[in-house]
Design brief:
This protein is of the alpha/beta class and 244 residues long. It folds into two domains: 5-19 and 66-107 and 153-243, Rossmann fold (3-Layer(aba) Sandwich); 20-63 and 108-146, SIR2/SIRT2 'Small Domain' (2-Layer Sandwich). 36% of the residues lie in helices and 19% in strands. It is built from eleven helices and ten strands. Helix 11 links the parallel strand 9 and strand 10. The longest helix is centred in the last third of the chain and has 18 residues, at 216-233. It is elongated and about 55 Å long.
Length: 244
């Protein structure tokens, strides 16, 4: 059965769990030169600085907990497994810890390392990278499994395939600025599109059928109601640009 709903999430989904975003006030971009720690060029220039940065982010993730927005997505995915695709730009594991199966991570995950010799990917939990060797080939040339700026993102093809598969159906976008992915452009392919961001973004909001400018945890029950109604009755939301 073709899937009918795509959830696409960004940093705003996990912000209420205490995971710092990059762009908001007090975010990581104020503390770091982002191109030094999150780009292919920065990694080539100072490998240790980049690996240390991701070590700190991985350790910081250990005590974070899913919030009710993660739980809402996980609940819907478990109840309608064949109808919903869950895609995230986030590199945390909070959707999985909320019980959500089959999460598609467009940019990789903090918990994984990747071997630069044989490309094996494996989970190290919240540990540091020091002393780690590839379990397949024993190489010590290992790195974080995160897509950095100016690197290819293989997961994007999966997203584009999903858009083709679910065209005319329902798109739900939670907590993304639209600066990495053109979510406004994606919305035009759908019969109904729902956007949830904390603050209004007129250039993005205008493309969506329904917009909830509030915290993800506050919008979660409203989004769940819309998705469940559609999956049980087939009724799509209406009235372009409606805000709540």
């Amino acid at each position: 059965m073709p899937r009918r709903v795509v959830f696409l999430s960004g940093a705003g989904l996990s912000a209420e769990s205490g995971i710092r975003t990059f762009r908001d006030s007090g975010g990581l971009w104020e503390e770091f030169n982002i191109m030094e720690v999150c780009s292919a060029e920065g990694f080539q220039k100072d490998r240790r600085k980049v690996l240390d940065f991701y070590d700190r982010r991985r350790a910081d993730l250990a005590d974070k907990r899913p919030n009710t927005a993660h739980a809402m997505i996980a609940d819907l995915k478990k109840r309608f497994p064949d109808d919903i695709a869950v895609v995230t730009q986030n590199v945390d594991d909070l959707l999985e810890r909320a019980g959500c199966p089959d999460v598609i991570h467009l940019h990789g995950t903090l918990r994984d390392l990747r071997c630069e010799e044989c490309t094996t990917v494996w989970d190290i939990g919240y540990e540091g990278i020091a002393g780690k060797r590839c379990p397949a080939c024993s190489s010590d040339r290992v790195r974080h499994n995160i897509v950095m700026f100016h690197e290819e993102a293989p997961g994007y093809q999966t997203l584009y395939d999903l858009i083709g598969e679910t065209r005319g159906k329902l798109l739900v976008v939670i907590g993304t600025s639209g600066q990495v992915l053109d979510v406004g452009g994606m919305a035009r392919y759908y019969g109904c599109s729902v956007l949830n961001n904390l603050h209004p973004e007129p250039m993005i909001d205008s493309h969506f059928t329904k917009v909830f400018n509030e915290a993800a945890t506050s919008a979660a029950p409203k989004i769940a109601m819309l998705v469940e109604e559609y999956l049980t009755t087939g009724k799509l939301c209406e009235e372009k640009g409606t805000r709540r």
